[in-house]
Design brief:
Transmembrane segments: 380-400, 412-445, 457-476
Number of domains: 5
CATH superfamily of the largest domain: P-loop containing nucleotide triphosphate hydrolases
Number of strands: 23
Radius of gyration: 40 Å
Shape: elongated
CATH architecture of the largest domain: 3-Layer(aba) Sandwich
Enzyme class: transferase
Membrane topology: Multi-pass membrane protein
Number of helices: 26
Protein name: histidine kinase
Helix content: 40-55%
CATH topology of the largest domain: Rossmann fold
Strand content: 15-25%
Keywords: ATP-binding, Kinase, Membrane, Nucleotide-binding, Phosphoprotein, Transferase, Transmembrane, Transmembrane helix, Two-component regulatory system
Largest sheet: 7 strands, mixed
Distance between the termini: 38 Å
Structural class: alpha/beta
Length: 831
């Protein structure tokens, strides 16, 4: 088999940034290096500069495919394979081939070329990457049906961003270098908005940076490299929930800003048993600050805070760690040993650690913190206090020993027993009690230097020491357990607050829940599966039969990859699963709401018609009544011309009244459920022409630029014609004499747009919403311009057809009304 060819992809944020031009430029360079280069297919879209670049590059003739009576040109895959060049230039990687072609998609053609050992240089826009499809739709409002799988794209040897500043791209578009003149206004007002282009540009750069980052991680994993590579600064700030957090975050942000592409990552470590000293309100404020600083916030549960912090930093490939100086005093530190900061410094390896001083550092003396139901570390510490405190106290008391000091000596040793009980619990306290009793008898009670209980009350003293130690230890242990339960509940509440905050800020509810679940329990991977479809996933891919499944609903399960969760974690997991169930219910309700949208559309039509009829019935009825009344009152004395004028007035008014009554009958049928809106493929040209005929508008009144190709709109032809009649009437009425109205059509994504453009006085921005109120006319003074159904009724009809009616300013003055309807087919790729 031949060696597989290499794929190079030129990635752009939007059409027109110069991908095809760059590809042809690269083809010329390779020919200059005596490489065998051919053009498999290039789409110039009528751009003269691009077409000029094809000169001098051999091209394989295209194949012709007949579809619906239209001849389409596609790349001749068999001819390119037969030609077997070293390098093939193949434009528009995401293109959908014409029906009847060997492969459905062009990227599949490219796959065959690569398998045959042919190198390929291709082009792609960011909106055509499968994983970014929904993100681009949120930005632009345009769904993309033509996509390339991420797995195929990641297999490319080279991916290069062809970049152009958003305003420069808009200038290029305005100059006619991207689209024909009739499509410029629509493109600038929709897909090519400055905000859209900026967001798409950022998305392209971030996607490529992430791909480079994944490639770097893969390389390090394949070569067993554990140390951090400082490709870019990633600064992790450890938050405890204390007041020093704001200082740490701002310091971390400054460190990240010193290098291009630096990232700020904040993390709060909650101990496995739920204990922490953080203030939830303070953490919420600090999380908001993280977002203002363009950072990300994470919450992690770990048994050992320093270890969990270092492991998290390594998992995100951090280069810097920012911690606050310890709030413990020197005395406390002497008893409890090195703190979190010292441990992190020791375990951080090649991650730089910044210890930031703050106002609360070492500011007060505290006893060793009560961190739960007496861990092994605390018990050992209790024995250490007993071993060191006993001799120290004995030495001190010996210096001031007298016959009258025995009471002070006894109370001092009793205090030592209480302190040991507070620190280490019952076993260290019992040890201290026995040791202090022996010491008292040996050094302070006659006869000295012997262990002999001569008096019964001496034995009673020793028993009292043991009882006191036991009682104090019991109280300490019970208080610690109560504190543990309370703080565990607080930790669970904080996690739920974190999840709810992610959802309320607009994050995807299911994805936010899955991400926080993985972080909270430190699992390698988590995913939510419904039937056989993966609804959301986070972390590493889950191996088959090596995960724990938890049923959420009848057909939905949560799958956890990693060790079994402890019993103390199951309750928190139950809360998360309840949140997941609620999110799934909410998702189902949204889908149900979408299903009843047609009913709401019919209601909008009914409301618009009733509003129109309530206004317009009065005028023709009054005119007809007045005309008939005039005829009756004048009798035979009325002049023939006057009689004819009254008859004409009555005839016109009654005809208009008949039309309105017909509308009323339609409303009655709609209310009865027997009149529905037709939703059929409609050619807008077939509704524009009758509308112009009805208004008797000719070439001097209206100019047409219909460039929608063979695209058809989902619409009701009758309703669409009535909307066009109303909009054309308004546009012709307000256009200056001798200046025709311009009507254009174009396709944009899966939408077909009809634009009615006039050069009249336009509408002030503050009045744009008012024009859709029933029967609002410019200046609201013209009541002689015919019946009409008003813009309110027009918008109601368009929205009922799942479309939109939007007013825009005409460049140079005037008003442009844009009808946007869903399409059934487009013959060419749209951005």
């Amino acid at each position: 088999m031949p060696k597989r060819g290499q794929l190079r992809v030129l990635l752009g944020a939007a059409p027109g940034v110069g991908k095809t031009f760059t590809m042809l430029e690269e083809g010329r360079r390779l020919i200059g290096e005596e490489k065998d280069v051919v053009i498999g297919i290039v789409e110039t879209h009528g751009r003269a500069a691009t077409a000029a670049m094809t000169a001098g590059i051999p091209a394989v003739p295209r194949t012709l495919v007949e579809h619906r009576g239209v001849t389409l040109e596609e790349m001749d895959l068999a001819a390119v394979l037969g030609r077997a060049p070293q390098i093939a230039l193949v434009d528009e990687l995401a293109h959908t081939n014409a029906p009847g072609s060997k492969n459905e998609k062009r990227w599949q053609d490219v796959e065959e070329l690569l398998a045959a050992g042919i190198d390929v240089v291709s082009t792609l826009n960011i909106q055509h990457i499968e994983s970014l499809n929904d993100v681009v739709e949120q930005i632009t409002g345009v769904p993309q049906r033509e996509t390339v799988p991420d797995s195929f794209l990641r297999g490319a040897e080279q991916i290069e961003v062809v970049d152009l500043a958003p305003q420069a791209l808009r200038d290029r578009l305005s100059g006619g270098f991207v689209y024909p003149a009739e499509r410029i206004d629509a493109a600038l007002s929709n897909y090519f908005r400055l905000g859209n282009l900026t967001a798409l540009r950022e998305l392209a750069l971030i996607w490529l940076a992430d791909e480079v980052d994944q490639a770097l991680k893969g390389y390090r994993k394949d070569h067993g490299i554990d140390r951090t590579w400082e490709a870019r600064e990633r600064v992790v700030v450890a938050l405890t929930g204390g007041p020093e957090g704001e200082t740490l975050l701002r310091r971390g942000a400054r460190i990240a800003a010193r290098s291009a592409g630096g990232e700020l990552i904040a993390v709060h470590i909650t101990s496995q048993d739920g204990l922490r000293t953080g203030n939830p309100a303070t953490l919420a404020e600090q999380r908001a600050l993280v977002e203002k600083l363009n950072g990300t916030y994470h919450q992690v549960i770990g048994d050992d805070v320093p270890t969990a912090l270092v492991e998290f930093a390594r998992s995100v490939n951090a280069t810097q760690l920012v911690l606050g100086a310890s709030r413990r005093g020197r005395v406390t530190a002497a008893f409890t040993g090195p703190g979190i900061g010292a441990t992190v410094v020791r375990e951080s390896g090649d991650i730089d650690v910044h210890m930031v001083n703050h106002a609360a550092a070492g500011s007060r003396f505290t006893l060793p913190p009560l961190t739960g139901a007496l861990t092994r570390k605390r018990r050992i510490l209790g024995f250490v206090v007993a071993f060191l405190g006993g001799p120290a106290l004995t030495t001190l008391l010996s210096l001031f020993r007298s016959e009258d000091s025995i009471t002070t000596d006894v109370l001092s040793y009793q205090l030592l027993v209480v302190v040991v009980a507070l620190v280490g619990g019952i076993w260290p306290a019992l040890f201290a009690a026995v040791l202090s009793g022996i010491t008292l008898d040996f050094l302070f009670i006659e006869p000295l230097y012997t262990i002999h209980i001569h008096q019964p009350h001496h034995l009673l003293s020793l028993v009292l020491y043991v009882v006191i130690a036991s009682l104090v230890s019991f109280i300490v242990d019970r208080a610690a357990r109560t504190t543990r339960a309370a703080r565990r509940s607080a930790a669970e509440s904080e996690l739920i607050q974190t999840i709810a905050g992610s959802v309320l800020r607009g994050d995807n509810a299911l994805q936010a829940l899955i991400d926080r679940t993985r972080e909270a329990f430190q699992l390698p991977g988590v995913r939510l599966v419904k039937a056989e479809d993966v609804l959301a996933t986070s972390g590493e891919p889950l191996p088959d039969n090596q995960h724990t499944s938890i049923r959420i609903t009848e057909d939905t399960t949560l799958e956890l990859c990693g060790p079994d969760l402890a019993a103390s974690e199951q309750r928190l997991l139950a809360v998360v699963t309840a949140q997941l169930a609620a999110a799934l219910d909410h998702q189902d309700l949204e889908q149900t709401a979408k299903q009843i949208e047609p009913i709401a559309a019919s209601d909008r039509v009914r409301g618009a018609l009733l509003t129109a009829l309530s206004h317009d019935l009065r005028r023709p009825l009054a005119a007809a009544a007045a005309a008939v009344g005039g005829l009756k009152a004048a009798g035979p004395t009325l002049a023939r011309s006057d009689k004819q004028e009254l008859l004409d007035t009555a005839d016109e008014s009654l005809a208009a009244l008949a039309a309105l009554v017909a509308d009323l009958l339609d409303v009655s049928r709609l209310q009865a459920g027997v009149l529905t809106i037709a939703d059929i493929p409609t050619d807008p040209a077939e509704t524009i022409a009758p509308a112009l005929d009805e208004l008797h508008l000719g070439p001097t009144d209206v100019t047409l630029a219909l460039s929608h190709g063979d695209a058809l709109a989902h619409a009701d032809p009758v309703l669409l014609q009535r909307v066009l009649v109303n909009l054309l009437t308004n546009a012709h009425r307000y256009s200056p004499a001798g200046v025709p109205v311009h009507v254009s059509t174009s396709t944009f994504g899966d939408r077909l747009e009809i634009r009615i453009i006039d050069r009249g006085p336009g509408i002030p921005p503050e009045k744009l919403d008012d024009i859709f109120l029933p029967f609002q006319r410019l200046g609201d003074t013209d009541n002689t311009t015919g019946l009409g159904l008003g813009l309110a009724l027009s918008r109601g009809f368009v929205e009922a057809m799942h479309g939109t009616l939007t007013p825009e300013d005409t460049p140079g003055g005037g008003l442009t009304m844009v009808i946007s309807l869903p399409t059934t087919h487009t013959s060419q790729e749209q951005p």
